[in-house]
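Task: sequence design from structure.
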């Protein structure tokens, strides 16, 4: 198991994306061990402060990896640096590639109906050999037994859940036990990016750890969420 850096009670793995894929996820997928992966950004960590049940869900996930420049900055400030950012979108793309190579099937749960449909067609375009277990949009009650029964029935190897925060983690925690196998991952707005609805920041912004600023400029209505990121940083500084 990897070392971790604990931020506000959440243990975040000290690993790189490649190592995580090769040493952790691939063997678990091959052995059909169930896993829940959380790509934690400051918003997720802040939410765990406000909602104890959500905190327990994140704490009981098999893997929590660092997403978001704020997490990396916080870890560095705490003198327990993390090697690199593992963004949900990047991890999903690598997993799709891996799924194609290994013949593993994927289920796409979440986002608006048209975005969900487009996500699957784009995934098929990028990875023609990919096996699609099924898809469903993300606007339903997370307790709905019919939706989960539909997903279970397809017996997927990977389940990408784009229901936003905190619903995606809640859906996974509630229903994971009903599955025989599966790598479950909440991926926020990643379907919107894959479907081409939302543009990801140019590479240089990502390299400079400024993806958050790009998003803020492109989607200024998100400013309220950005306040959470600042509050997160402020609390990290206060704690030391
Ligand atoms: N979403 C969904 N059902 C919902 C709320 C959101 O499927 O009830 C989808 C939304 O369409 C988007 C993704 O979840 O594709 C992430 O949404 P958002 O950016 O609002 O969430 P966050 O950034 O908080 O994870």
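Answer:
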């Amino acid at each position: 198991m990897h070392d971790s850096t604990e931020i506000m009670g959440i243990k975040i793995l000290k690993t790189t994306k490649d190592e995580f894929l090769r040493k952790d996820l691939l063997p678990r997928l091959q052995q059909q061990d169930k896993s829940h992966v959380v790509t934690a950004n400051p918003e997720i960590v802040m939410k765990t402060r406000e909602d104890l049940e959500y905190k327990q869900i994140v704490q009981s996930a098999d893997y929590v990896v660092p997403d978001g420049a704020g997490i990396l900055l916080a870890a560095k400030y705490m003198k327990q640096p993390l090697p690199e950012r593992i963004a949900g979108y990047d991890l999903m793309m690598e997993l799709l590639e891996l799924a194609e190579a290994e013949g593993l099937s994927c289920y796409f749960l979440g986002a608006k109906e048209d975005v969900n449909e487009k996500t699957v067609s784009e995934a098929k375009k990028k990875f023609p050999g990919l096996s699609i277990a099924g898809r469903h949009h993300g606007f339903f009650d997370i307790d709905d037994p019919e939706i989960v029964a539909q997903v279970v029935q397809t017996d997927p190897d990977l389940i990408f859940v784009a229901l936003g925060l905190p619903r995606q983690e809640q859906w996974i925690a509630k229903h994971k036990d009903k599955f025989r196998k599966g790598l479950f991952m909440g991926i926020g707005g990643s379907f919107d990016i894959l479907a081409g609805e939302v543009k990801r920041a140019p590479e240089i912004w990502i390299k400079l750890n400024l993806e958050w600023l790009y998003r803020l400029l492109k989607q200024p209505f998100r400013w309220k969420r950005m306040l959470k990121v600042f509050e997160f940083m402020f609390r990290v500084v206060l704690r030391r």
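The two ends are 27 Å apart (CA to CA).
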